């Protein structure tokens, strides 16, 4: 739009410059006509004056006298500009007008091309907007799929955990009757009731006579650890037997307190192993002796991952 306005103003200015010589020539012609008319009027006035004077004298002027007494008219003219300069000026004006017309045409076609380019850009913008909406819909679908995948992954993880729990090693402890020997000891049988082996098993035991109720083992407890790890296979024909023992004799007054529930003989078994799924696990077993059987220590009956 700015280009068109500038081209129009340039065209107006150049057109005015091109017309100016013609206006100048016409004014010059008008001045020349006025000069000729004034010359004619002067001639007629001079002739009438001479005729009047001769009539008063009663003479008839002859042709020679009339020609000698009649003044000659003076013609005042303006020298026109040189033809070469005028032609060059006209040619330049025409060239500038043609140049202006060419620039106007170039501007017209340029604006037309720009409009077409703008329409193409608008079409591309509409296409990109449609693509953007399509991408947003795809993102929404992908988010829904991600949520569904996450839910499916959680379900699969739970199923895997259930499968591992059903297939991994499960250790259990069985006891024979206490052996009233010196020192006091209790045989314990470790059995794998699961479906896969328990690798690298390490067994630790504690035993101590402590006041009732039980609060925990002290530094005086008898501690023992198997010297080397072992593998406990599922449903083996024979159990792994270990002994929990006390490194001193039980005094008669301690026995009476045990029977009267003033003290308890407490022991603990802690086993760490690696299951078939390469996870480190541990199990705790805690008991205390009562007349005719055993009771559980709530502090030491649990299992978990290392």
Description of the molecule:
51% of the residues lie in helices and 23% in strands. The protein is α+β, with helices and mostly antiparallel strands. It folds into two domains: 1-167; 171-305, Immunoglobulin-like (Sandwich), CATH 2.60.40. The strands form two sheets. Strands 3, 4, 5, 7, 8, 9 and 10 form a seven-stranded antiparallel sheet that branches. A hairpin with a 5-residue loop joins β7 and β8 (280-290). The chain is rod-shaped and about 155 Å long.
Concise account of the structure shown:
The chain has 306 residues and is α+β, with helices and mostly antiparallel strands.
- Tell me the structural class: alpha+beta
Task: Quickly count the helices.
Answer: 4
- Overall structural domain count: 2
Let me know the number of strands: 10
What is the CA-based Rg, rounded?
A: 66 Å
For the sheet with most strands, the description reads: 7 strands, antiparallel
Task: Identify the overall geometry.
Answer: rod-shaped
The helical percent reads 40-55%
In the predicted model, the low-confidence regions spanning at least 5 consecutive residues are 22-29, 53-67
Order of helices and strands: HHHEEEEEEHEEEE
Measured by DSSP, the beta-strand proportion falls in 15-25%
Mean pLDDT: 77
Separation, N- and C-terminal Cα atoms: 80 Å
């Amino acid at each position: 739009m700015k280009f068109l306005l500038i081209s129009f103003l340039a065209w107006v200015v150049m057109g005015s410059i091109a017309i100016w010589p013609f206006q100048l020539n016409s004014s010059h012609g008008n001045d020349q006509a006025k000069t000729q008319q004034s010359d004619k009027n002067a001639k007629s006035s001079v002739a009438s004056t001479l005729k009047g004077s001769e009539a008063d004298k009663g003479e008839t002027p002859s042709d020679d006298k009339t020609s000698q007494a009649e003044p000659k008219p003076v013609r005042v003219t303006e020298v026109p500009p040189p033809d070469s300069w005028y032609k060059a000026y006209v040619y330049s004006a025409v060239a500038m007008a043609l140049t202006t017309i060419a620039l106007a045409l170039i501007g017209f076609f340029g604006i037309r091309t720009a409009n077409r380019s703008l329409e193409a850009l608008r079409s591309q913008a509409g296409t990109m907007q449609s693509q953007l909406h399509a991408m947003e819909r795809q993102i929404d679908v992908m988010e829904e799929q991600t949520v569904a995948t996450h839910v499916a992954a959680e379900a699969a993880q739970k199923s895997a955990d259930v499968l591992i729990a059903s297939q991994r090693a499960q250790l259990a402890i069985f006891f024979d009757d206490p052996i009233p020997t010196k020192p006091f000891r209790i045989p314990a049988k470790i059995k794998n009731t699961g479906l896969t082996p328990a690798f690298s098993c390490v067994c630790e035991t504690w035993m101590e006579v402590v006041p009732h109720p039980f609060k925990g083992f002290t530094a005086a407890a008898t501690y023992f650890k198997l010297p080397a790890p072992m593998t406990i296979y599922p449903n083996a024909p024979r159990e792994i037997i270990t002994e929990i023992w006390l490194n001193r004799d039980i005094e008669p007054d301690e026995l009476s307190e045990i029977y009267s529930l003033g003290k308890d003989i407490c022991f603990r078994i802690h086993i760490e192993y690696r299951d078939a799924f390469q996870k480190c696990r541990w199990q705790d077993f805690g008991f205390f002796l009562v007349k005719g059987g055993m009771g559980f220590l709530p502090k030491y009956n649990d299992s978990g991952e290392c």
